[in-house]
Amino acid sequence: MDRLNRARRGCLRLQVALVLICLGAVPAYAQFGALTSPRAGQQIRTDEPVTFSADSVEYDKDKSLVTATGHVEAWQNGHVMRADKITFDRNTGVAAATGNVVLLEPDGEVMFADYAEMQNNMNDGILKDVRALLQQNGRMAANGAQRTGGQINEMTKVVYTTCNPCAKDPTRPPLWQIRAASAVQDLEHKKIEYRDAELEIYGLPVAWFPYFWNADPSVKRESGLLPPVIGTSSALGGFIGVPWYQVIDDQSDATFLPLLTSRGGQQLDIEYRRRFNNGTLLTNVSGGYTNASLPGSNESQDSGKSLQGSFASRGQFNYDDTWRWGFNINRASSTTYVTDFHLTEGLTGDPNILSSQVYIEGFGEGAYTRIDTKFYQALNSVINSTALPTVLPRYEYSYFGTPDAWGGRFSLTTSNFNVIRTTGTNTRRASLTMDYERPFTGMLGDLWKITLHGDAAAYDASQFNETPNFATKDSIESARALPQVAVDFRWPFARDSGSWGTQLLEPIAQVIVAPQTGDSQTRLYPNEDSLDFQFTDANLFGFNRFTGIDRLEGGVRANVAMHGAWYLGGTTFDGLVGQSYRTSQDNLFPEASGLHDQVSDIVARATFAPTQWLDLTYHTRLDKNDLATRYADAVASAGPARFRVSAGYIYTTFNPYTFYDQAPPPPAGSSYYFPRNEISLGATTLWGPYRVTGFVRRDLATNQMVVAGGDFIYEDECFIFDLRGVRRYVSINGDHGATAVLFLITFKTIGQFGYRAL
User: Fold this and answer.
1) Which of 169, 266, 466, 653 has the highest local Cβ count within 10 Å?
2) How far is CA 227 from its chain centroid?
3) Average pLDDT over every residue of 394-414
């Protein structure tokens, strides 16, 4: 022991710097520096000194051994090693660690071992009985590992998974794991390569790979093969595709999907993504030498194959804090190509019509402006493509001012467009809408508001006698303005009944004075923005029940309603019932709309929410003469998150959407007013890692199903199983319905495998 020069143990965490003062300098490769951790963002250097702390340090001068024991922690170049005991050999530069060895890497990876020998600034070494914690809950174990250059970890008898061990029985096999004879963890290229690997499910082997690799869990993007797409469909037959994901640079990547089919031909789908400093871009190009299906048939044409494809791209870019611009372009060579290859999943908008637009918009304080152009392409053979409009361009501006000295507020909106059709009306319109609102509060708590409202528009239209107007003239140039004045009145009465909650009773009245307009508008002005409307409680109080200003509601009229509510603890009941009255009949509204006569139909709504797990909402329109239901929309939801049930019902006798592609409707009582009558049901359950949903919609008017489907999902920290099925019973483009089944299996950090049958 007289040859052993012991260091003085003066404190619990004795720093090696004190030892160096007593013992002199050590070789450069084993130099110890001050007790400081590397700073964030600091460049790592291979010649940085090693720093450590311990409960005690002993030094054998003859053997050049430094032995640190008790809570030993050493770090260098961002690498940290902890152990019960570390012995450093000054002659060989080897640091041997035993007892609860832990290595922390700069990227956050943590390795555990029973024994480790490290040298060359912790860049080289061997470890025994290794366990590693990677990012995204990655877990790896091996009998042994050898580190080379701080970049390569070669391991034997390897197991990898992202599943947590069973809390009750840690020895139980996880849901899935990869077991391999050997593996190489490439820290530089961020990948793990396996040799002689097996995929095990609950300890049972289900697949074997002579060679397999996956990206390190710390990598968010890595080039390589993605899970295959395999399935079958009536149009394509059997098909298979193996996607390739390519990282181009830090801002962009692409996915290539070659698809081989038994009957539909071949195609290549390319999706390109790029993120800029001021925006994003996504582009999808698809094309191939494919068979086209006959409209309304699932059989291939005898004429053979043809070159077809599609293009979809969208982007949005900020110019500064006020202005931005963007686009959304969707085109396809044919309806059948999109339908057969299911490309509508990658195209935005209505699956029956592809819409495209380019726009510039600006945001100011209380103001918004936008200029855009829109064009459409029909994907359903029922739709007449030549009647679809091209909007070139459309300009909108809106302004909402701050309250003035009198308490009033001014707002302004302008909407101007040029609509072009091959078949149908070509319309150019400039419009302006202005409002000035001044609210008042009476001495008895009554609430008043006076509104000055004005609409003005100028038109220039050709082919006025075609869709969607069907007027008697071929062309027209016209202008009009409609001023209106409204007085709104509300008088809320509220009572606090203590344990009986709070009750609210509120009469509402509105009187509007304006010149009479009448149905002469159909002969004088084109209609582009007022083709569809539904009279409900939502638009009972308004200057115009139409959706736009191409059709204006005028005349002297009064709108009245009674609003009531009851708030009782966690229970809420809210309801409204109202009606509209006018001094003269307005023939501009169709007979079944509920607004044709001087007295309108009755509209109402009710909401009932007795608890957090039950809510009911109902909207209706009742015939003014016999209270028959003309419109009903009900939505109900009940149950906790573990099991939630929803139901919906819609009924309406008025479907004005057909204004677009046919002449004005016939009188009431004809088949045109055949009611829409549908019911829908849905349910969702969430129980631990399981989530199950189901839905169904049925047309009660035709007594047939519309669509039904369901979704079963299991998800935990390492695995996802998703099974989905949808059956569409209605025919689209003559396909007589369709069935889709998809299951997707995800091994987190490894990949996915799915099957689809259509």
Assistant:
1) 653
2) 22
3) 95
